[in-house]
Structures are given as structure tokens and as C-alpha cells.
Design a protein that fits this description.
alpha/beta; 5-stranded mixed sheet; 25 helices
Length: 719
């Protein structure tokens, strides 16, 4: 219950408080109630106890709240299990409290980075390894330490890469004789040379190596790094500075008064320089929010900020009028933008740059966020800037980044689920397993074979829906059947082979063992996922989702083209969208590349009451994140507190010939994705594996507001 996803998604009782208790939390609680220590927990969500449970759910620190009734006797570990079900965003704090009570506070406090202590415990034959993390470079700290120890001039450094192996070997050999220090940087970039490194380290002889010799290595986590070197070496991790305040303070500590005074346009220079440092902190710290921050995690570095400040100084010094468009382009498309590969991320970066590098920054009443706490101050002295930065909170709210308060919950939940996945990976994966494990795998495999058909009726689909010039949906349907059948064939064949392997009839291969382990952990096997549509669901809800998709296709085959389409049920939605455009273009003899969709939000109908439109298609089954649909104003609105996702209304995709672009002040171009990961890769068809299309959603707020919010729509959630 703590580590994996819920084994069952069918609760024994109805959700007693749908208005405040999310359905996925109720499913987790229902599964928790199957354990002896939590027997009838789900049944106790009534009367006075329900009020107490709502108090715990609404509390900012639910892990510290008193449990109601008979549940007050729970141990801290049992309370952690309950937090995992009710408020997963607070599970990490509950785990820390459990460890602190059982082992002591020192086990939850990160030890300080002490290079001197590690060096004091080392010897000439033990390599010292810096495990690198994004945004943190220990080189400056190391070089300073080398000077302090008197090895500044007895230090050889080399950054590994193509052709650098022989030079590194020579430096190591010379260092062992002379007693110097050798720093080999970025070992993860020299995979082919790492076996040589392992051999040389194994051959270190305490009798022959100079006692002052030290081998220092830096590397990102890599599966190719030699295990023996890692086991024998002294390992150090230096985390990058976290938090808006810490980041901006770090930038300003590298400046001095002369730097702040070194520009003809002093006021513009100081104000815009602060805006640049704030932008740098924002683009780095948004990463902690996962896909809400950036679709892809980019390694923005201090060098990006340095280049922007140099260019800002140049343009302010050499130009009478400030070229705002040039500054914005350089920041958004080259310096920071050079790293950005996703077009939605590029749109966000451009929006952020236009917030912090713009003429409005010079106005005293211009604020960077809604709280009014963040702005570019009218300071002159270096110390005044530092004092102003110290007024910022250590842990800024999501509003500082332009995000909704719910983003904090999403961020904390992602941290919890990542921790659970890591712990699950540490579970033993022995192929032999115990009798109970084998029996459970057999039961699961047989149950899935009973539930999932061997294939869909392709012959019937082709006969009833032959290729028709005027009805492209016939082709879409048969293509969907073919795709589903390819996946069903893999699922069925691997399950049958797994059953034989567990019974000992055939040999247990590595692939079959991986499938068995995945079934036991309630995860979708990798060999299935590679043949299936994108999905983040655990096995139990994934199977229910698959059954619903197959039912959708079968109903289409048996009952004819539906009045509205479940967009989430398609294996390949781009083909369906192209088919809808193709029908309209062929009906009216238009060139298809001049036909596009108008997006009409139909909140006045449901999927059951919808009638088939003359042109285009009506779609349903989408979810909204970081926004919701207001059924009274018929506009996009901010989400309700603690409501991470909400249902989107039906949308009529209405084809229009040579459609005029919509007024950008009245709509938000919201991306529709297949899964919550957001990021995708370009497939061989030229389509993204995750992105579906842009939807023009009516709104009374500027696009920049929703872009910073990272508001989007999705075909499927995680549960």
C-alpha cells in the first residue's frame, strides 16, 4: 500500500464525501482497509468521524493532526500509510517524522558538504568521487581547497571526452610518482575509457604510490561507471542552491559596487540587471514543479546569465535607445532559448522574458507577481540590493513563478511518488520467488487473459466500414483495430508464456521474469507499454482503461459512427483529427491544407445528449490541469483549491475553410496532451508521441497568465 499503486480500483463503499475527498484518495483508503491494522477504515468515514477526517484533510500539516476514535492508537508508520492514501503530498514529511522518532533527528538532516573531512579520511589508493547534480559544479570549491592544502600548483586537471584517455593515463602515472593531485572531470562522457580507469585504480599499490597522490573524479550518475571504483572510492554530492532567494543572492554576491556603477545608463542597468537575475532564478526553480514548470528539464547554467548581462551592458552602453526587441530575442531564443527544444517551453520562456526584460520594469509600481512582493528595486548600493533580497521568503509560494497554489501540492505529490518508485525498484527481483508470489502472478495472468480479448474483429470492421472517399472515419476505425490487435497479440502471447514459465513447462527468460515482476508490483510491463498507447496508469486502472477503449471501438463497429467521440479512447488521435478535416474538405472540394478547426466549447450538452454535427466532430473525455471551465461565465477560470484536475466540457471541432485567426485577447491556446508527462518525442509520422492539438479556449485573462500557469488539457490521468 505504501509503495505500489492500489491493487484494486473498485472500492467496497461509495465515496462518502465526493465534494472534498478525491476519488483516487478514496480508492487508496479502500485498499488500505484490506490490511488487518486498518480493517473497516473505509466504513468509519461517516458521521462525526467524517468531520474529523475532513479536518485532517484540510489541515496544512495533516501528519501532525490527532487521529479520530479507535485510529488514535496507530503507530507513526501506520499514520504514514494513511497519509500516503489521504494526502500523498504530505507523505514525505510523515516518513521523515517516522524516521526521526525511530532513529533520531540526525537521520533526516543532510550532512554539510565538508571536503576537508573527506580528504582527511582518504589515502593515496582511494579515489575521491564527486557525484554531479544538475546546476551544481564543485570545481570552484575543489580548486579553492587545493590551494588551501598547498596543491594549487601540484594539480593536473583534464576534462574527459573523445581522445583524452591516453592523456589522462599519463597524468595518473606521473601523479603517482610525483605525489600530485589529478582531477578527471566528466567521467560519464568517456564511457569507452572507463574500463581502463577501473584497471588502473585496481592496480594502485600502497607501496609504490606516493602518499600525497590523490585521484579526484567527477561524474554524473551513470550505469557505465565502474562499480569497483564506486564501491572503493569516497563519494561526495554537492547539491545546487535551491530557492528563489538563495539563487538571486548567489548572483548578486558575484557582483560588487564597481560592477553596479559601471554603465552610462545607471538606473536602467541596475533595474534590468535585477530583472535578469530574477529571470535566471525563475527558469531554474520552475524545474522543481516537474511538467508544470517545464515540459523538459533543461540544464540552465550560470553561463546563460553571464552572457545576458554582458549583452545588456553592451546595448545600454552603445545605444542611445534601448533595443528591447533585440534584448528579448537574445535572451529567449539564443542564450536561454538555445537549450529549449519543446515549442510549448519556448512559448513559456518568451513570456517569462517579456515579464522581466521590458520597459515596464522601470516603473515603480510594476510587480513581477500578484503578491507585489517581487519587483526591481530602486537601490543604488550593493548592500542595499542584498538587504532587499533578504526580505524574500526562503520558500516562495507558486505565485512567484506565475503558478497556482495547487502547484505546490502537485510538486509534493510528485516527490512522494518518485520516492515510492525508487523504493519499489529496490525490492528483490529474484526469478525464483516464493510460492505466494508465483501463485499471485498466476492468478493475475489468468484473470487478465479472461478479461482482455485475444483480438478485435478486423474482418467485420473492414466489411462494414470499407474504404470510402467520402467517409474517412472508416479508414480511421480499421487502423485503430489493427493497432489494438498488434498490442493484444503481445499481451496474450506473453501472458500464456509466463504461465508456462511459472509452472516450469518452459524456461523463465529475462523478459518473462520482468513481466512477472511488473504484474506483482501492479505495474504495466515494459514489453506491453512499448506496443501500447502512452499511459501513466498502474496496472489495475490500465486494464480497466484498456477494457473501456476496446468497448468504445467495439460499440463503434457494432452500432455505427458515434454522435461524439471519446478522444481519450483513440490509439492514434492525429489520424482521427485528420479524418475529420478530410471529410469536410472532400465534401466541399476544398484543399485540406486550407481547412482548420474552430473550437466550440459545448457546455450545454453531455455525451449522451449530443447530436452528430453536419460538419466536424464533437469530442469528450478531456481533463484540465491548472485551470477549470466555469459553466456560468462559459470561460476558463482558476482551479478550486486542492482540485488538481477537473473535467473539460465537450468540444465541437468545427472545420472552417480559410479560417481567420481568433482574437488572441479573447482566447488561450491550450495544448491537449495524451498524458501528464507533457513532453513527447517526434515519431516517424512527424507527430509528437504525446501532444495532440492546440485548443482555443475562451478566456477573459491575457494569454501570458495561463502560459505561466502551465494550464493544459489531457486525455488521461494517472489513475
Amino acid at each position: 500500500s505504501l509503495l505500489g499503486a492500489p491493487p484494486s480500483v473498485q472500492p467496497r463503499h461509495e465515496n462518502p464525501a465526493e465534494q472534498w475527498l478525491p476519488s483516487n484518495a478514496w480508492i487508496e483508503i479502500s485498499n488500505l482497509a484490506k490490511l488487518s491494522a486498518f480493517a473497516d477504515l473505509d466504513a468509519s468515514f461517516t458521521g462525526e468521524m467524517l468531520v474529523d477526517f475532513k479536518r485532517i484533510y484540510d489541515s496544512p500539516n495533516p501528519q501532525d493532526e490527532e487521529m479520530p476514535g479507535e485510529w488514535a492508537k496507530w503507530s507513526m508508520f501506520q499514520r504514514t500509510l494513511f497519509m500516503r492514501a489521504l494526502r500523498p503530498d504530505k507523505c514525505v514529511q510523515a516518513i521523515m517524522k517516522t524516521v526521526a522518532e525511530a532513529q533520531g533527528e540526525r537521520f533526516i538532516e543532510a550532512p554539510p558538504f565538508d571536503l576537508g573531512a573527506v580528504y582527511a579520511d582518504s589515502t593515496a589508493t582511494i579515489p575521491l568521487i564527486f557525484v554531479l547534480s544538475t546546476g551544481a559544479d564543485p570545481t570552484a570549491i575543489f580548486l579553492k581547497f587545493a590551494d588551501e592544502q598547498g596543491f594549487g600548483k601540484k594539480l593536473d586537471t583534464i576534462s574527459l571526452g573523445q581522445g583524452q584517455g591516453p592523456l589522462a593515463e599519463k597524468l595518473m602515472s606521473d601523479g603517482q610518482e610525483r605525489g600530485s593531485w589529478v582531477l578527471l572531470q566528466n567521467c560519464h562522457l568517456a564511457v569507452s575509457w572507463l574500463p581502463t580507469l577501473e584497471r588502473m585504480v585496481d592496480q594502485f599499490d600502497p607501496e609504490l604510490v606516493h602518499r600525497d597522490f590523490r585521484l579526484w573524479l567527477t561524474s554524473m550518475p551513470s550505469k557505465d561507471f565502474p562499480v569497483s571504483v564506486l564501491q572503493d572510492g569516497a563519494k561526495m554530492v554537492n547539491e545546487p542552491p535551491k530557492g528563489l532567494r538563495t539563487n538571486i543572492m548567489g548572483s548578486y554576491l558575484t557582483f560588487d559596487q564597481a560592477y553596479l556603477d559601471g554603465c552610462p545608463k545607471l538606473q536602467h542597468w541596475r533595474k534590468l540587471l535585477f530583472g535578469l537575475c530574477f529571470l535566471h532564478a525563475i527558469v531554474q526553480d520552475r524545474r522543481k514543479f516537474g511538467p508544470l514548470g517545464w515540459n523538459i528539464m533543461y540544464e540552465f547554467a550560470t553561463g546563460d546569465l553571464d552572457m545576458c548581462t554582458q549583452q545588456l551592458h553592451l546595448f545600454l552602453s552603445d545605444y542611445e535607445e534601448i533595443p528591447w526587441a533585440v534584448l528579448q530575442f537574445l535572451e529567449a531564443e539564443i542564450n536561454y532559448g538555445g537549450r529549449v527544444t519543446d515549442d510549448k517551453d519556448r512559448r513559456l520562456l518568451n513570456t517569462l522574458v517579456r515579464t522581466y526584460t521590458c520597459p515596464e520594469v522601470m516603473n515603480k509600481d510594476y510587480k513581477f507577481s500578484e503578491s507585489g512582493m517581487y519587483f526591481s528595486p530602486d537601490c543604488e548600493q550593493h548592500e542595499e540590493f542584498l538587504e532587499f533580497i533578504r526580505t524574500f521568503p526562503l520558500s516562495p509560494g507558486p505565485e512567484a513563478f506565475g503558478l497556482h497554489d495547487n502547484a505546490d501540492i502537485t510538486c509534493a505529490q510528485n516527490e512522494t511518488f518518485a520516492l515510492m518508485e525508487d523504493l519499489l525498484e529496490c525490492q528483490p527481483k529474484s526469478a525464483s520467488g516464493g510460492g505466494d508470489r508465483d501463485q499471485e502472478i498466476l492468478n493475475l495472468a489468468n484473470d487478465i487473459l479472461k478479461r482482455i480479448p485475444a483480438k478485435l474483429d478486423l474482418i467485420k470492421a473492414q466489411e462494414q466500414y470499407p474504404t470510402d472517399y467520402h467517409e474517412s472515419m472508416n479508414t480511421v476505425l480499421t487502423q485503430e483495430v489493427i493497432r489494438f490487435n498488434n498490442m493484444l497479440r503481445v499481451v496474450n502471447s506473453t501472458l500464456k508464456n509466463l504461465i508456462k514459465a511459472v509452472k516450469g513447462i518452459v524456461a523463465m527468460s529475462g523478459e518473462l521474469d520482468a513481466i512477472g515482476t511488473a504484474l506483482f508490483n501492479n505495474a504495466v510491463p515494459g514489453s506491453w507499454a512499448s506496443k501500447a498507447y502512452p499511459s501513466l496508469k498502474p496496472l489495475a486502472p490500465w486494464l480497466i482503461d484498456l477494457e473501456m477503449r476496446l468497448e468504445f471501438v467495439n460499440k463503434w463497429i457494432n452500432d455505427g459512427h458515434p454522435n461524439c467521440y471519446w478522444i481519450s479512447g483513440f490509439f492514434f488521435p492525429p489520424a482521427f483529427l485528420t479524418g475529420a478535416l478530410q471529410n469536410y474538405a472532400r465534401k466541399n472540394q476544398y484543399a485540406i491544407d486550407r481547412v482548420s478547426f474552430q473550437h466550440v466549447f459545448r457546455d450545454d450538452i453531455t455525451k449522451d445528449s449530443a447530436e452528430k454535427p453536419d460538419d466536424g466532430v464533437i469530442i469528450y473525455g478531456m481533463f484540465m490541469e491548472a485551470c477549470r471551465w466555469d459553466y456560468e461565465t462559459h470561460l476558463l477560470a482558476d482551479p478550486n483549491p486542492k482540485e488538481l484536475f477537473s473535467d473539460a466540457p465537450l468540444v465541437w471541432l468545427k472545420p472552417i475553410y480559410e479560417r481567420q485567426p481568433a482574437d488572441p485577447t479573447t482566447i488561450y491556446e491550450a495544448p491537449l496532451y495524451k498524458t501528464l508527462v507533457r513532453a513527447g518525442t517526434l515519431s516517424t509520422t512527424g507527430h509528437s508521441t504525446n501532444f495532440v492539438l492546440m485548443l482555443e479556449v475562451p478566456t477573459d485573462k491575457p494569454q501570458a497568465f495561463w502560459i505561466k500557469r502551465a494550464s493544459a488539457l489531457f486525455c488521461a490521468l494517472k489513475y
